[in-house]
């Protein structure tokens, strides 16, 4: 199984909305690298849900319920969407500061390419982040 990180501005669509909705489509991605990552995501894989801009923290996890398909917010066939379902809320959000302070996470794309909205997460990175969420 692969792991992913998806970023959202909480003013646009935040973790509280994700929890309330239970399931949603993930659309509106207009970056080619993020789009290419979305095309690699498989049903059943987990994604970390990251609040950008204000909180700068991973709030919890979602599971992919539908692999990429044409983004319904665009007529351009280059853009795609995936469907997500609430999986788990972290008892303590994992902050960007914690991630940056941990040398084991120095190569995580969240630090190296901070503007990328959909990115793969290595198993070892996921394991470290999960432990922070349990503290």
Per-chain topology:
Blueprint: E1 3-8, H1 15-21, E2 23-26, H2 32-40, E3 46-51, E4 57-70, E5 80-95, H3 96-101, H4 109-112, E6 118-121, H5 123-134
Parallel strand pairs: 1-3
Antiparallel strand pairs: 1-6, 2-5, 3-4, 4-5
Find the count of extended strands (DSSP E, 2+ residues).
6
Note the beta-strand portion: 35-45%
Apparent shape: globular
Q: What is the chain-wise order of helices and strands?
A: EHEHEEEHHEH
Helix fraction? 25-40%
Assembly category = single chain
Total discrete domains: 1
- What is the CATH fold-level name? ph1033 like fold
Class based on secondary structure composition and strand pairing:
alpha+beta
> Can you give the mean pLDDT?
96
* Tally of helical segments: 5
* Radius of gyration from the alpha-carbon trace, in angstroms: 14 Å
Notes on the structure:
It is a single chain. The protein is of the alpha+beta class and 135 residues long. The protein has one domain: ph1033 like domains (ph1033 like fold, Roll), CATH 3.10.590. It has five helices and six strands, in the order βαβαβββααβα. The chain has a six-stranded mixed sheet. The longest helix is centred in the last third of the chain and has 12 residues. The two termini are 25 Å apart. The model has no long low-confidence stretch (mean pLDDT 96).
Summary of the model, kept short:
The chain is 28% helix and 37% strand.
List keywords for this structure.
single chain; 135 residues; alpha+beta; ph1033 like fold; 5 helices; globular
């Amino acid at each position: 199984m692969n792991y992913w990180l998806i970023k959202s501005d909480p003013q646009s669509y935040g973790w509280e909305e994700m929890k309330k909705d239970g399931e949603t489509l993930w659309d509106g991605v207009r970056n080619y690298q993020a789009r290419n990552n979305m095309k690699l995501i498989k049903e059943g894989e987990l994604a970390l849900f990251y609040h950008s801009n204000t909180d700068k923290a991973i709030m919890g996890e979602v599971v992919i319920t539908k692999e990429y398909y044409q983004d319904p917010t665009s007529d351009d066939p280059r853009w795609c969407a995936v469907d997500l379902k609430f999986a788990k809320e972290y008892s303590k959000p994992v902050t960007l500061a914690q991630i940056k302070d941990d040398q084991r996470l120095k190569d995580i794309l969240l630090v190296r390419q901070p503007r990328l909205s959909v990115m793969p997460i290595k198993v070892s990175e996921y394991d470290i982040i999960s432990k922070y969420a349990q503290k």
